[in-house]
Amino acid sequence: MAAQNRPDPITLLEKSDEGRLENLIPIRYARMLKSPFTFLRGAAVVMATDACDNSYHWY
Question: What one-character DSSP code corresponds to residue 16?
Answer without folding.
Answer: H
